[in-house]
């Protein structure tokens, strides 16, 4: 059976808000080491990968591997019944047909219980190969969200160029064109979450659909920073670290997006 307790339902709410518009139904793979989710969006252009380590939960018990097929929209609606600071406990039996949610208020004067029917979802676990990326860019998550939102005004696709002087986001459309340059910051200039750090083996320039990047940035509330990993001919990785209520590393939410292939004219 699975029994997992988080001190703050708000964390689970943020995760669901970040992925439910990309993925409708998904399997949560529960094991003694934690809870994982991996699913492609309906157009098979992007992939979502979530990992929540057992150590990040207030209490965690999972005796053996258990797969919970869940409609993410329905789960999100149930989580809206919890206050952000309520404790939430997920329970499911080994061969159960439901996953139950128990919400307890901080004062423990209110307990709410909900059952969500499980689904049979066919899905293949995709082996994500370990890739050495030519460039990684760690930057403030809110800054990345603002860039993606602002550039959408001018076009549908963004060209991301990472070089030794910084990272450039460029867009061109019928209305005009624009580009935003972000330079690396030194540790003395800013707090860790406010720094832009670029690790570069070689310069990389790739093109991506802004619609997906804007959907990925719904995870901004999870983390102060985001890491972009780029390499030629492989999907971009947009990674948000997840921290537990006591600020410990708990896992990550990663989005993978295939680059757009520029057609030779």
From TrEMBL:
<dbReference type="InterPro" id="IPR022659">
    <property type="entry name" value="Pr_cel_nuc_antig_CS"/>
</dbReference>
<dbReference type="GO" id="GO:0043626">
    <property type="term" value="C:PCNA complex"/>
</dbReference>
<dbReference type="InterPro" id="IPR046938">
    <property type="entry name" value="DNA_clamp_sf"/>
</dbReference>
<dbReference type="GO" id="GO:0003677">
    <property type="term" value="F:DNA binding"/>
</dbReference>
<feature type="domain" description="Proliferating cell nuclear antigen PCNA C-terminal">
    <location>
        <begin position="127"/>
        <end position="260"/>
    </location>
</feature>
<protein>
    <recommendedName>
        <fullName>DNA sliding clamp PCNA</fullName>
    </recommendedName>
</protein>
<feature type="domain" description="Proliferating cell nuclear antigen PCNA N-terminal">
    <location>
        <begin position="1"/>
        <end position="124"/>
    </location>
</feature>
<dbReference type="Pfam" id="PF00705">
    <property type="entry name" value="PCNA_N"/>
</dbReference>
<dbReference type="Pfam" id="PF02747">
    <property type="entry name" value="PCNA_C"/>
</dbReference>
<keyword id="KW-0238">DNA-binding</keyword>
<dbReference type="GO" id="GO:0019985">
    <property type="term" value="P:translesion synthesis"/>
</dbReference>
<comment type="similarity">
    <text>Belongs to the PCNA family.</text>
</comment>
<dbReference type="InterPro" id="IPR022648">
    <property type="entry name" value="Pr_cel_nuc_antig_N"/>
</dbReference>
<dbReference type="InterPro" id="IPR022649">
    <property type="entry name" value="Pr_cel_nuc_antig_C"/>
</dbReference>
<dbReference type="GO" id="GO:0030337">
    <property type="term" value="F:DNA polymerase processivity factor activity"/>
</dbReference>
<dbReference type="GO" id="GO:0006275">
    <property type="term" value="P:regulation of DNA replication"/>
</dbReference>
<keyword id="KW-0235">DNA replication</keyword>
<dbReference type="GO" id="GO:0006272">
    <property type="term" value="P:leading strand elongation"/>
</dbReference>
<comment type="function">
    <text>This protein is an auxiliary protein of DNA polymerase delta and is involved in the control of eukaryotic DNA replication by increasing the polymerase's processivity during elongation of the leading strand.</text>
</comment>
<keyword id="KW-0539">Nucleus</keyword>
<dbReference type="InterPro" id="IPR000730">
    <property type="entry name" value="Pr_cel_nuc_antig"/>
</dbReference>
<dbReference type="GO" id="GO:0006298">
    <property type="term" value="P:mismatch repair"/>
</dbReference>
């Amino acid at each position: 059976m699975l029994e997992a307790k988080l001190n703050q339902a708000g964390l689970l709410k943020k995760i669901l808000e970040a992925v439910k518009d990309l993925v409708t139904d998904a399997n949560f793979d529960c094991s003694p080491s934690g809870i994982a989710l991996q699913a492609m969006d309906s157009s098979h252009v992007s992939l979502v990968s979530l990992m929540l380590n057992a150590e990040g939960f207030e209490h965690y018990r999972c005796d053996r591997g258990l797969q919970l097929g869940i409609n993410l929209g329905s789960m999100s609606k149930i989580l809206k019944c919890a206050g952000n600071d309520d404790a939430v406990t997920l329970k499911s039996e080994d061969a159960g047909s439901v996953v139950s949610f128990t919400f307890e208020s901080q004062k423990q004067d209110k307990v709410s219980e909900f059952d969500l029917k499980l689904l049979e979802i066919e899905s293949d676990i995709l082996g994500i190969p370990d890739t050495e990326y030519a460039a990684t860019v760690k930057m403030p998550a809110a800054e990345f969200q603002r860039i993606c939102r602002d550039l959408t005004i001018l076009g549908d696709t963004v060209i991301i160029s990472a070089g030794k002087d910084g990272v450039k986001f460029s867009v061109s459309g019928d209305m005009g064109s624009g580009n935003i340059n972000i330079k690396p910051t030194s540790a003395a200039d800013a707090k860790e979450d406010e720094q832009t750090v670029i690790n570069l083996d070689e310069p990389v320039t790739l093109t991506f659909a802004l619609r997906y990047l804007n959907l990925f940035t719904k995870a901004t509330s999870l983390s102060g920073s985001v890491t972009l990993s780029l390499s030629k001919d492989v999907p971009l990785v947009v990674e948000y670290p997840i921290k537990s209520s006591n600020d410990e590393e708990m896992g990550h939410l990663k989005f993978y997006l295939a680059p757009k292939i520029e057609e030779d004219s």
